[in-house]
Amino acid sequence: MLAPCQRPSLWPLQAGLAGARCYHDVVTTKQELRERIWEALQRRGVARFPGAVGRIPNFDGATRAAELVRRLQVWQQARAIKCNPDSPQLPLRQAALRGGKTIYMAVPRLRQERCFIELDPQRLGRRASAAATIRGAFKYGRPVTVDELRCIDLVVCGSVAVNRGGARVGKGGGYSDLEYALALAAGKLSRDTPILTTVHPLQVVEEAIPREVHDIPVDYIVTPEEVIETHTSLPRPESIYWKLLPPEKIEAIPALRRMAARLPDVP
Fold first, then answer.
1. Domain span including residue 194
2. Do residues 12 and 184 touch, judged by C-beta distance below 8 A?
3. Among positive and negative, which fits the CA dihedral 202, 206, 27, 21?
4. pLDDT of residue 26
5. Model confidence at 6: pLDDT above 60
6. CA gap 115, 188 in Å, rounded
7. CATH for 26
8. For the chain, what is the radius of gyration of the CA atoms?
């Protein structure tokens, strides 16, 4: 059974004001891992348009991975999904809209007050298939604030690398983690909401992946060949970690700026 949404509270916002550490050395190690995965995908000829380097890599077999996801109970039960806008997850967005599920995609860099795009298949009608693409989402979707999100039943994120323990590395911007934290702070998902990613087998590494306090772990890793249920014991973010956010980033993201204004200790 899917976990219910938590009621909005200032607690997740306030909790992030203390106890956070900045891991400058981790960033370099993560970047080395990204570059190794990007190079391996291209060398093996399994990267697909628009390529691998510097992005969530599209990969050969993304459609097959989406077919395996559709068999999962967490997918079948989900009514509203937060999904990244990247190319390898396009088959999932298409399947979700065909299945009557509402999708929320974040605006790039969360740079607008209405920082999510709502794709409601009932409202979209025949435009639903076109709306699954990045361009179509912005043309046909409805911009909404984080407070206007429905209760999110499943989070789908893109990844550059993952391991079977549930650790994940994205492309380096930190926006997937921040989108999760914003929705958590607004009470639109709970800390039990399942998190899923689809990747190529080359992106599944055996080594430990360095983590920071704001990193989201994954519960399901789906490749074209298998479903890995991680049963992760890795902690999830509890809040927005304000001390790890540069003032210029808070200023550049309207939703963060509005939340920060409610807290006395955020500069």
1. 11-260
2. yes
3. positive
4. 52
5. no
6. 14
7. 3.40.50.10420
8. 18
- Whether 266 is in a domain gets the answer no
Q: Report, as an integer, the average pLDDT of 252-261.
A: 94
State pLDDT tens for residues 142-169.
Answer: 999 999 999 999 999 999 999 999 999 9
Q: Are strands 116-119 and 142-144 parallel, antiparallel or unpaired?
A: antiparallel
Token look-up 């979707």 returns: 141
SS3 call for 4: coil
How would you class 127 by CB atoms within 10 Å of its CB: exposed for 0-12, middle for 13-18, buried for 19 or more?
A: middle
- Quote the number of domains for the chain: 1
Structure token digits, residue 192: 């039990």
Whether pLDDT at 53 is above 70: yes
Residue 267 lies in a domain: no
The answer to whether position 225 is within a domain reads: yes
Task: Tell me if 6 is assigned to some domain.
Answer: no
